Amino acid sequence: MSKIQIKVCGMRESNNINELLNLQPDYIGFILYPGSKRYVGDNYRPEVNVPSSVKKVGVFVDALISEVVARKSIMDLDFVQLHGSEPPEYCKEVHEMGIKIIKAFGVTTNFEFDELNKYAPYCDYFLFDTQTPIHGGSGQKFNWEILNNYSLKTPFFLSGGIKPCDAEVLCNLKIDKLFAIDINSGFETAPAQKDIHQLKHFINTIRTK
After folding, report:
1. One digit per residue, pLDDT tens: the chain, 209 residues?
2. Residue 140 host element (H or E)
3. Distance of alpha carbon 177 from alpha carbon 175, whole angstroms
4. DSSP strand E in the chain: where?
5. DSSP characters for 51-64?
6. Cα gap 39→134, rounded to integer Å
């Protein structure tokens, strides 16, 4: 797991974002889905200067493509994360606009990774989360051993219920194509408010292994 990337998702508050940026995460995620407790709101723009070394990700759930394009422009997003049931044709259209895509999938016990071949030509990364009705942020894990069945070439983010105590286990995972760890609700003191002390310890542990 050398050079594993870190994405901290569900950010919203300026002071908290500034504190996070001091830890130099690789990706920072903003929830652009109104059904989420971490929704940033309409017409949101970060009030802090996010350096180019930290990639900004906007998380959408079955949004109109026109909304994705507009938000991408307004927020100067580096990636869009599609966290709903968007079909391959949707991803193809977004991809052909030159927008980089992280496509999320809820993983179940019998998840068929071969189905992702339809998405692979249009997605820069996949993201594997726990399958729940609320589209992420559930705080629930899935069985990570399932990822040993993944044989596609597209690198992926691992998400779903990751907590501070999981750092050592994650460091010892030997799963091909695991590119990044996506953390969110397991590090919160309140929705969209992250515990910076816990994040610092977690990130240091991951990066020093």
Report:
1. 458 999 999 999 999 999 999 999 999 999 999 999 999 999 998 899 999 999 999 999 999 999 999 999 999 999 999 999 999 999 999 999 999 999 999 998 889 999 999 999 999 999 999 877 655 555 679 999 999 999 999 999 999 999 999 999 999 898 989 999 999 999 999 999 999 999 999 999 999 97
2. none
3. 6
4. 5-8, 27-31, 55-60, 79-82, 101-107, 125-130, 156-158, 178-183, 188-190, 193-194
5. -TTSEEEEEESS--
6. 13
Cβ neighbours around 145 below 10 Å, total: 9
Domains, the chain, in order of start with CATH, read: 5-208 (3.20.20.70)
Q: How many CA atoms lie within 13 A of 51 on its CB side?
A: 10
**3-state DSSP assignment of residue 25:** coil
Of 43, 42, 44, 48, give the one whose Cα is nearest residue 19: 48
Beta bridge partners of 125: 102
Residue 24's alpha-carbon distances to 50, 145, 199, in angstroms, are 10, 29, 11
Contact (CB, 8 A) for 187 and 206: no
